Amino acid sequence: MKTSKRLDYVPPSPIRKLVPFAQEAKKQGVTVYHLNIGDPDIRTPEVMLNVLKTWKTNPIGYDQSQGNPEFIGALLWYYKNIGFSFLKQEHIQVTLGGSEAIAMALFASCDPGDEVLVFEPFYANYNSYAAVTGVNLVPVRTTISTGFHLPDRKTIESAITKRTRAILFCNPNNPTGTVYTKEEVSILVAIAATYRLFLLSDEVYREYVYDGKKHVSILSYMGQIPDAAILLDSMSKRYSVCGVRLGTLVSLNARIMAGVLRIAQGRLSAGLIDQLVASKLTEVTPSWLRETHDEFEKRRDILYTGLGRIPGVTIPRPEGAFYTIVGLPIKDAEHFCQWLLTDFRDNNETVMLAPAPGFYATKGLGKNEVRIAYVLNRKSLARCVDLMGIALVKYKSQN
Amino acid sequence: MKTSKRLDYVPPSPIRKLVPFAQEAKKQGVTVYHLNIGDPDIRTPEVMLNVLKTWKTNPIGYDQSQGNPEFIGALLWYYKNIGFSFLKQEHIQVTLGGSEAIAMALFASCDPGDEVLVFEPFYANYNSYAAVTGVNLVPVRTTISTGFHLPDRKTIESAITKRTRAILFCNPNNPTGTVYTKEEVSILVAIAATYRLFLLSDEVYREYVYDGKKHVSILSYMGQIPDAAILLDSMSKRYSVCGVRLGTLVSLNARIMAGVLRIAQGRLSAGLIDQLVASKLTEVTPSWLRETHDEFEKRRDILYTGLGRIPGVTIPRPEGAFYTIVGLPIKDAEHFCQWLLTDFRDNNETVMLAPAPGFYATKGLGKNEVRIAYVLNRKSLARCVDLMGIALVKYKSQN
Q1: What residues does each domain of chain A span?
Q2: Residue A114: its chain B contacts at CB < 8 A?
Q3: Over the stretch A288-312, which tens digit does the pLDDT of each residue have?
Q4: Do the beta carbons of residue A252 and residue A230 sit within 8 Å?
Q5: Best residue in A50, A62, A94 to probe B by mutation, most B CBs within 10 Å?
Q6: What predicted TM-score, i.e. pTM, was given to this entire model?
Q7: May I ask the CATH class of domain A5-43+286-398?
Q8: Are the CB atoms for B11 and B329 separated by under 8 Å?
Q9: Inter-chain contact B228–A3, Cβ cutoff 8 Å?
């Protein structure tokens, strides 16, 4: 019985494919520190959990396909609060995680075989949504030596073909931790305007920008390119609710919004409980948000300083999000990351990292790089830095 | 800015597209009885709601892409309980609603342009998943005169072409309420085996079969066609948790399961809260399930008897699920259903129905039919029957 050809093109997640090795290690009683996935240990705000504790609604029925009205109201409050009061209810589509927002945006902007520019290394799951929607991701390379900032306008433009329909970028960036400057975002906006491309901005990590830098949102350009700009957003990281599967697609383009609503009608609605939990974002205190931001910045410091001291390690200063791509003195990150789980133990502990090649589209790139998510508490993170130092010495001696 | 061509092919939901008219009626103070959507008023089992009231997990993090282990265990317990103890963990993929299970199954069995046989009228959202996955649904007609039972084997086979990859059927059926006999299911199994087609069985309403009839599950045939059979399932209706977005895709085909897991990895996980709520299905009492079944059967009786008395109404005896397609003495169901919301009021009340043409793929079919979901309590339902009788007389005099 033959499955579809396209099923073979859906890639395994580079973040998750080593999970069986981690499970095996845990079975052996080994402690595995997870720096492979962006699932933070930050506690979910109590005000959200209280929705559960005081739950009344019964039965738990479908919600509206566009999204729960209370939740949409909360989202509008949030966007107004960060300076974008022009958004209205009809500009918001609630999605099943940021994942669905990305898949919807690719579907709505591209027909099968159309091309979307992405800056590699990029969030690996973009490959999944591209495979599911039949879209070709065309990588434009960024490198560790420039902190993964964008190449110049001409280089980006040279990747555009007749089939290019969109540019997709993540800012602050997963997996690199890069925060694009106003100039960089402006160039993307100018290219989108010139070539009439959709500009899809994934801003899931908007709040996590360090060293006093400012985040530049696509929302600032929605007046300039109202039909082209699409914001992709998620609750997961902002409020430490990754298991609450809620994201948003935001656009002023009425055809896009009508189309994604039709897709949304097909899957009926997002979860009612999740939406009522997330609606309490209006009551999350500024101090919770500030403390969470500051905590990640301190973790960034531990990682950046610690890894910088290990001979042969290249780490650009992470500017935002809670990821970074690190260059290691090894030849094959896939092998190294697996070896960490299967062979390496120090005091019966090891660390799980994501091999970077899965974040590149171009074969052969990122072979000596890993992605690190600094989502564990500072003590654990310091221990992870130590483990990596010890492991690299041992790995070199054995391989 | 041109959106993709395929976005235009995603149809609006016939179940939901009249919602704005209903909202307008409600604004005017009119009571609208919703028989348009399968969102039952049955209370969610307390044992599930108690999960919320005693919630401890913090943070609410990602779960495993295949599904929460406790929830998968509960599902295996359920399938064993209904007689299918051969299923193992690797045969289960937890999905974001039954919707995602259907979309995954179409993607995994078909490349773009491939064909899937469906029996019309069919669940309208199949059109959405087909549009999203680029699959052509090929309708095989069933008619109200035979209670929407399947045509003979030859008629079904005559719809098969070189591009046919699967047969998709819903049993008990939404929108018709038909429950296929063992002979009918066996014929589909035989056709799938002969032509090497996937057989996708949507059994979301498995528990709702009336008049002492037995449901025949695709699970009974998984030994016979292990690579071809795919079960599509959902928690929504079984436990009255439509707003808990959880379904399952079940198959013994290892390539299918590996492929859908890769798709699932791309969207990370289903909701943690929803999965822990649904895990309590093992503690839902047999009496809750029996009472819910009996309640729907009584509602079926009210609808069947009541509508059968209205002159010009054709209603086959609904055998299962909680839907039925009813023939009305009108020419244009779209117009009638909209008129009910915009013009008709009796004692300031009206009823919302789903026009049947949206459930047919063949243009021109179902024009005098509506789909009714008998999801309201018996008193409301009796009132709806009265309203329909009064409305039909009034409509005839005005149109």
Answers
A1: 5-43+286-398, 46-283
A2: 4
A3: 999 999 999 999 999 999 999 999 9
A4: no
A5: A62
A6: 0.96
A7: alpha beta
A8: no
A9: no
